């Protein structure tokens, strides 16, 4: 079983190498990518069942035990997030394959897209499974390198500028992370997370607080937490739809996962965190208000992405098992729905030839199926019953209601941000799908991959989007068993003992 823990990291690397060797065969590249991600999904499901039944599954790389050696750990939280992330990645790959077929033909291969796509999956898997801070840093660097290539493929000046912003901010965050690792190692003599759980507790309180704040800032940048969010709305909207969907669905959630793991395991709190509660409110409100000011559909969705990071921060800030479990459940929901909305946005812009909401209109008459595909995830994001968004927000509100006066007040901001999200989604619906039909605009730059092939979208693109809508619906249908897993995951996070004993023995 411990051998399986290594496969989500090794299989995408092997697949990336094979797609490079198959650079002349587009069909072979597509087949390799789909098979690899499907296999990782199966492995993740097996690990989730094993972790739920018997506890965390640990792999000691090279036979070296922790804390000396590198370990990979699959507990309930990491296995669940690995499963949902890989399923979303697989759907996005199918969408991207369909888009490339529509734009460049069935026989056109790529020397960069498929290998880099799989390497990004490698970084995400390593981030979820790693048991030490330095390997987590390596995972972030793999994701950074892969995402920079994806965001600047077939580039233009605008995308170069946004890509440089993304890279500069990410490198700054990485430098801060590396500095934090050095300080942690200097103070404790280890970077293993389970070992740090005991050693950090023996440090002076001031030093503990400093190291905790450094990790919050570092991972807050990765997660696009206000006021460290400014890079995201300028970067994500300038990438092709499948790339933006993958980034929005996975990369910021990896940052939230790192926050959740370190703040519960290494820097555990004894009650609600005032700092995180304030940051959660700012993130929810600033993101939602920023969305209302946008005419660009992708920028609007990017600001809503920022806003809903605040929901996850709120669950963490409660610092109890309910809050941590609510955050885990919300991450699962949000990975799916945010990726779906950006895929639908890609279909909309290919129909209309523009990302300007005011330049669209009457799309429901021309494409009622597209209207349904937008409506379902939009209502899910707003948290309308009985969607998965409602189930996840209900878990957070219950945690806030029982966490004290401060968390109850912040729970009110959760409701406010949800209403603002609903208003933003209704505004998009009215302007894009209702009203007078408008003629599609010509592609302003046929050489890039941002808005290409107006009114052309292949069946795989629609099939992948429908599949993600189905996954989101399945989360709501299976709310009972899924909530039980996330509640137990939250209890494990706060107890810390199952993780520590599994790693250190």
UniProtKB/TrEMBL annotation:
Keywords linked to the UniProt accession: Cell membrane, Membrane, Transmembrane, Transmembrane helix
Membrane topology, from the record: Multi-pass membrane protein
Major place of residence: membrane
Any GO molecular function: NADH dehydrogenase (ubiquinone) activity
Classification via Pfam families: Proton_antipo_M
Transmembrane feature ranges: 32-50, 80-97, 109-128, 134-151, 163-187, 207-232, 239-260, 272-293, 300-319, 331-349, 370-392, 404-426, 462-485
Family annotation (InterPro entries): CPA3_Na-H_Antiporter_D, NADH_UbQ_OxRdtase, ND/Mrp_TM
One example of a Gene Ontology biological process annotation: ATP synthesis coupled electron transport
Gene Ontology CC: one annotated term: plasma membrane
Top-level taxon: Bacteria
Domain NADH:quinone oxidoreductase/Mrp antiporter transmembrane intervals: 131-414
Subcellular compartments: Cell membrane; Membrane
Family under the similarity heading: Belongs to the CPA3 antiporters (TC 2.A.63) subunit D family.
NCBIfam families found in the cross-reference section: PRK12665.1
Protein name as catalogued: Na+/H+ antiporter subunit D
Species for this entry: Pseudonocardia halophobica
